[in-house]
Amino acid sequence: MSLLFLLHRKETGNAAGADSVSHFKLRKQYLRENKVDEFKEANFMSHRRRTKEGWPAITSGNPARRVVLKKAWTRQLAWLGFILLIWTLVGIFFASQIYFFFIRTAHAISFNRAIVWQLIAVYLMACITPLVLWLARRYRIERHNWLRRLLVHLLAGTLISAFTSAGHVLIDNWFVYGIAQVEVDKLLRSAFVNLDKEIIVYWLIVLMSHAFNYYQKYRESELSKSQLAAQLAEAQLRALKMQLHPHFLFNTLHSISALLGKDTETAREMIACLGDFLRMTLDNSGAQEVTLRQELEFLKCYLDIEMIRFSDRLSVRIDVDPQTLNYQVPNLILQPIVENAILHGIAPRSAPGQIEVEARRHDRMLRLSVRDNGGGLQKGTHAGGQSKGGVGLTNTRERLSQLYGSEHYFELHNDPQGGLVVTMDIPCYTDE
After folding, report:
1. pLDDT level of residue 326 (50, 70, 90 thresholds)
2. What pLDDT was estimated at residue 316?
């Protein structure tokens, strides 16, 4: 109760402090004037007021606090039940050993008597185990305090082991010779002889507590590391994706500005297509992955802009297996590749250009490919696609590495019939 009172005083802060000061002044004033009865009455009324205004939430417990306390008690009871179960199993094992040891001797005992004997013995340890676990947690042996904590456990372990050793010797004598034949001198000597075994049990409990604590810290550390790694990867992916928007907007706005002085109507149409594209992008701005169907809709909006820009110089063919439309792909993964094909394969040439986009399932992977009929890779560029490339291709490589690690394939190579082919394989899966 006093702990709850202190917690309440800490939470109420200055208001509770002011109430305490007023209460003290009132007491001093009444006692100075020898009005003891009035002070008792005022003190009683003040207590009723405090109880009515807010203290029942602490003393009786609000629903949230009751739930927390119930969960805490449930965990404690479950832990005590687990300790009791372990020692019960140990007792049954010891009972079977004693039964089979004495079964063909003059001191043979029944199995039920052996069970009762050993369960009483191990339940003594079960009663001591929570104390030993508390000492192990309270005086945890760490690198900076190992000497002091070790001395604490040596002293506590010796005292507890002496108590349990005496108890076990008393229980053994009781079941073997009867309580009337227990001699104090023999009891003390036997307890001292068995002291080493009890000390070993004490240290085994302490070591298991330390091992469990270190394992728990290791799990928490690994979880924290994995969460930090996921947050870092998410931040990197967002940063990479955000780099695409200025890159794409710069190129599109540059094309619009070039059209404003020549063809205002076409520029307006391009601005409308750009608005549609940006709205679709914002609708999925927080998603790292979308369905292939959505990705193709984004791509169509972008290609509408580019086809207005290039007019009859650009044609597009999209060949997609309908069964792949629900597979997950990185958001805005095709647009920078197609933009790169237009920028380097179509724009420098006066001849008509063609872009082909294909999607097929290849084994357990989804294969996406973008082909153009431009000049292809220049001589000296690595055919495996390891050249630095522009912002779009660099971002594509890095995003694929962040999302899939080694479970992806990305390659640039020249088409024998002319042009460049960009191929990437990513794992096949849906969002279901």
Report:
1. very high
2. 92
The phi, psi pair for 107, rounded to 5°, reads -105, 30
Strands (E), 243-388: 289-291, 314-320, 328-330, 353-362, 365-372
Mean pLDDT of the chain: 77
Residue with tokens 């996921």: 230
Strand segments (E) across 292-419:
314-320, 328-330, 353-362, 365-372, 409-414
Q: Do the beta carbons of residue 320 and residue 356 sit within 8 Å?
A: no
Neighbours of 410 (CB within 10 A): 20
| 95 vs 181, more confident | 95
CA distance 153 to 162: 14
Q: Do you know the residue count of the chain?
A: 432
**Alpha carbon of 74 to those of 77, 81, 117, 426: distances in Å?**
5, 10, 30, 47
Tokens found for residue 426? 């990513």
State how far the Cα of 20 lies from the Cα of 337, in Å rounded to an integer: 73
Give the list of residues 6+ apart from residue 285 with CB closer than 8 angstroms, or none: none
